[in-house]
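Suppose a colleague, Dr. K., hands you the sequence of a protein chain of 149 amino acids and asks what its three-dimensional shape might be. Before reaching for any lab equipment, you can write down a predicted structure in C-alpha cell form. Begin with the sequence itself:
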Amino acid sequence: MSEKLPVSVLVVIHTPALEVLLLERATRPGYWQSVTGSLERPDEAPADAARREVSEETGIDAAPQRLVCWNLANAFEIYAHWRGRFPPGTTHNTEHVFSLEVPEPIAVTLAPLEHRAQLWLPWREAAAKCFSWSNRDAIVMLPARSAAV
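The predicted structure, expressed as C-alpha cells, is then:
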C-alpha cells in the first residue's frame, strides 16, 4: 500500500429533510462517519476526490452540479494508530468539506473493505453518532448551509 497524502475530503450526503447518511467503518465497529477519503495524487482537486470517494464508498454519482464545496477546511491531528499510512513524520491532515443532496434516503452500495453498515438519521442524531469532531461539526452546520444554497 502506498503512503496516503495528508489531505482529505469529507462529504455529508443528505436529503432535503436533512436526513444524513452515515457509514460504519469495517475495521472500527461503532465508528460512524460520512464519506471520507484522501486525495490519491498531489494534483487531484479536492472536488474530484470528493466525487470519486462518494462513488467508491456508496455507488452514488456525485455529478459536479450536485456536489457543493463549502470552502471550509479543517486541520486535525491524525490518530496515532492511523499515522503509519502517511509519510514518516506526518501528524496532521487537512480535510476539505463538501455536501451532496439526494432526493430521499436511498440504498447505497458499500465498499466492504471500508464500511460494514449504513443508516440514514435526522441531522441531530447523525451528528451525535459521529466519532469525528469535524464530521459532527459539519452536520451541525448543515441546516444553515442548506438554507443558503
